[in-house]
Design brief:
- Helices cover 28% and strands 20% of the residues.
- By secondary structure, the chain is an alpha+beta fold.
- It is globular and about 75 Å long.
Length: 511
């Protein structure tokens, strides 16, 4: 009988342990002077009800970092709020926190990409009797300004005319094939441009509309120019001189743009004067020809002549590069990825992880690297701050969060934030997150009546249809720091920011 009673007691202890590990905590876990909130605070519940979002469609995780009650290094985390914290959720662009965190650790904040430039044949009297080669190695920053500088350096080598071709080597990456229109049937949206070892200017272009103060027109400036593509110099202006004013409104619809014709961009509508100067960016309608048209136009702009064509190929073995075009350091690239939620740059970085590790950037190899990094740095076995319960590792798709397959729990993201807080690259990582009310994707989230009411919130945001999420670090008005994660997966998730505001209000009043 004694053995039976002991066995029942042991079984009861096991059950209690598992209850404490459930994502929606029902028993308070004590900290020094603080306790886990066993249910959602009333102000958050009210905000969810007002937005029409069921509480069972959201997850929250708030844990102290350096405030009173924060765990000692190596101790189990003591969350201040844990609601459905172990439920796997689609985090949208918040998944970029995993990609950028792993990259800062594995590559280092001073890592740079290189784009080697080669030539074969001979160079004499300004004529290159051979080919010029650009070898892509995943640089996500080859925008038009830096491409112009690269070609200017070719001119400084003495090249005025290329009798051969400009050859583009993209062999460093072998990503899974992607249909740009598969995600949301919008293939010309810039965020749908696939990753590429030699990604030139994100394969996108933009139109800038500038109202003329003296004429009823808005001037149109295209950037970058693409060889052979016709664009209008102006569009009619509405609400301008001699007409009644009005609000800006849906100016894109009013323009009636046709971006789908590769050789001619046209606008059949007008531009509202009330909009001032605006920029509209889109992916090019014929991506296979974008690089050729861009490089041909840029080579002409620096005074060069090309007798051959721009084509794909590989650098012949045995050649030594003339020079390398070097990117900004990773710390700067991570800031662009997180503050402005750049999906294309995030996917470039994602593939760079496996390219650096194996010499070939592939989707599955990068997924495996992120899984291994997670297990050794954040998961149960390798974390500085062990996870409560059995949190599942993240399900990674393409590293950017532009996916319907990505999954991660609020607790897992919270553990990632706690881990980053203790890393040497923490300042670079924290500085990459949008500062609520100041910059990036969360510039307009702060309360208008008192922007300082929440303290300082560095939060990465993410949104898709039926998905809204934030995660990062909040410094309360009392100077305490907290890891904060909030995710909603529900058809009315677009209203979730009001619940995030309620969460930040609640946290600002914490001890």
């Amino acid at each position: 009988m004694t053995r039976i009673r002991l066995a029942r007691l042991a079984h009861l202890a096991f059950i209690v342990t598992r209850v404490l590990a459930v994502g929606s905590l029902s028993l308070p876990l004590q900290t020094r002077g603080q306790a886990v909130t066993p249910s959602l605070p009333p102000e958050i519940s009210q905000a969810l009800q007002k937005a029409g979002i069921p509480a069972q469609s959201v997850s929250f995780w708030v844990a102290p970092l350096n405030s009173q009650g924060a765990p000692a290094l190596g101790a189990a985390p003591r969350p201040l709020l844990a609601w459905r914290a172990q439920a796997p959720m689609n985090p949208a662009s918040v998944m970029k926190l995993l990609t950028t965190s792993a990259a800062l650790d594995l590559l280092g904040p001073d890592f740079t990409w290189h784009t080697p430039v080669y030539a074969d044949g001979t160079l004499q009297d300004g004529v290159l009797r051979g080919n010029l080669y650009l070898q892509g190695q995943g640089d996500p920053t080859l925008v038009v300004e830096r491409l112009w500088l690269l070609l200017q350096r070719v001119r400084q080598w003495g090249v005025e005319q290329i009798q051969g071709d400009i050859v583009l080597d993209r062999s460093a990456f072998a990503p899974e094939p992607v249909d740009p229109g598969e995600f949301d049937a919008a293939p010309l949206r810039p965020y749908n441009v696939p990753a590429n070892a030699l990604l030139l200017n994100f394969r996108a272009w933009s139109a800038t509309f500038s109202p003329d103060p003296n004429k009823p027109i808005a001037h149109v400036q295209m950037n970058p120019p693409l060889l052979g593509v016709q664009v209008p110099l102006s569009v009619p202006l509405t609400g301008g001189k001699g007409e009644s004013g009005g609000a800006c409104g849906d100016w894109r619809s009013q323009l009636q743009a046709h971006w789908d014709q590769p050789l001619q961009l046209s606008f059949n509508g007008s531009y509202p004067a009330a909009c001032g100067e605006r920029v509209w960016s889109m992916a090019y309608a014929d991506p296979a020809q974008y690089d050729a048209r861009l490089l041909a136009a840029l080579w002409q702009s620096v005074g060069g002549r090309l007798e051959g064509k721009v084509r794909d190929g590989k650098v012949p073995s045995g050649l030594s590069p003339w020079f390398n075009q070097t990117s900004p350091p990773l710390a700067e690239v991570v800031r662009d990825i997180n503050k402005f939620s750049n999906n294309v740059m995030a996917q470039q970085l994602f593939l760079t992880l496996s390219w650096q590790a194996t010499g070939q950037g592939s989707t599955e190899a990068s997924r495996q690297i992120l899984r291994q990094w997670w297990a050794s740095h954040v998961g149960q076995k390798g974390a500085m701050v062990p996870l409560d319960g059995d949190a599942e590792p993240p399900v990674v798709d393409n590293g950017s969060g532009l996916s319907r397959q990505s999954r991660v729990s609020a607790q897992a993201l919270g553990a990632l934030i706690q881990q980053n807080w203790r890393q040497g690259a923490m300042p670079e990582w924290l500085a990459s997150l949008p500062l609520v009310g100041v910059d990036g994707t969360l510039k307009r989230l702060a309360p208008s009546d008192n922007p300082a009411r929440w303290g300082a919130a560095h939060l990465k945001s993410g949104s898709l249809r039926d998905v809204s999420a934030v995660a990062g670090v909040v410094r309360t008005p009392k100077g305490n720091y907290f890891a904060v994660v909030a995710i909603a997966n529900q058809e009315r998730a677009a209203g979730f920011p009001t619940a995030v505001q309620a969460l930040l209000d609640w946290l600002s009043k914490s001890p």
